Amino acid sequence: MIGRVSLSRIRIGRPGPVVLILGTLVVIGVIVALIRFAFGIGAISNLNNSYPWGLWISLDLLCGVALGAGAFTMAAIVYIFNLKQFRPLLRPSILTGFLGYVMVIIALLVDLGRPERIWHMIVYQNGHSVLLEIGLCVMLYTTVLALEFLPVLLERPNWEKPLRILHGITMPLVILGVVLSTLHQSSLGSLYLIMPEKLHSLWYTPLLPLLFFITAIGVGLGMIIFESSLSSRAFKRGLETHLLSQLARAIPYVMGLYLLVRFGDLAVEGKLDLLFTSGVYSLLSWLEITVGAIIPIVLFSQRSMRESPRGLLIGSLFVIGGLMLNRFDVSLLALNHLGGQPYTPNLMEFAISFGIIAAGVLTFGFVAKYFPLFESGEHGTKQATESLPSSAVPTTV
Known about the structure:
There is one protein chain. By secondary structure, this protein is mostly helical. The chain has 2 domains: 25-196 and 345-397, no CATH class; 199-335, no CATH class. The protein has helices spanning 17-39, 55-67, 70-80, 90-112, 120-123, 130-155, 160-168, 170-190, 208-234, 241-268, 274-277, 280-300, 303-306, 309-333, 347-370, 377-385. Helix 2 (55-67) crosses helix 14 (309-333) and helix 6 runs antiparallel to helix 8. The radius of gyration is 22 Å and the shape is globular.
């Protein structure tokens, strides 16, 4: 039984080529990070006075936080909306979200430098800064995700007392997690409300926090489908197509709401003509709208695509790709950077990002292989709980 297996029985076999490649990326990333801390950010990046925020903010922070939205989305579906049939998707979603937030934190520590001073944000607070709210929410929500995921690690050594405690605080944790995630997903959009003269009019709007939140929900559903599709292939397990198709069915409504809000705002503000008269910005805007919203709506409106493993994977890739395009547009490509200094990310900037992503993938694979991460419907849930007393079975992840 899962709960009776000792941690001492874990045996790590010889790594395969994929693991070796990912491990190499991690090692390179660590070396580059050490160079950054030893010689400063200028030694590994092309950031300058015109571009103080570059690849790491756009990719690791804005995309990373949004791509971790599947955790709060699935927790809300299972516990707040009481749709227990989606429980088999919960644990992988929580782990993906937790690893995503940890990777965001690591990237920020490399970007900001002086990680030993991260506590200064808590003590020397700037109550007028959106960054304070984002920082506190990310720290608290990462802690919540760790507590939500902890039962997966505790089931194996069968630590009953901690499991009972976590069982008792499940619902407060879920509610707190949803509130915190809602706050900072939208607040990332609020960061750019102070830039009306710098952010192009196609993206600047007082509704930017709402648009960030809506797209986070959409990409959260997409990430659940994407993670499930890849893990089913990597670990040769069944794909919960019947569950994923229901999630995919909701995506057209979410992205349809996004299109309604975005086009409605442009119409009210008299900016619709900018979609056709802004040159490269018009192309960027239509690209993200088409890739991230229109195509997923068309694909997932078809039952055949929703019930096809390949169709689910392709559709989720479009949702994720569109979200990433949107975050890069808002934070980098559609901003008017003063000073005239150009910016092209240094290869070592990519090394940091790829190293962090590789570490996250390796960690997910390790947990999936050696801990009870996946539940296969009722059978999987029963197998995971048979060895525990009824009072010790966690209702959290």
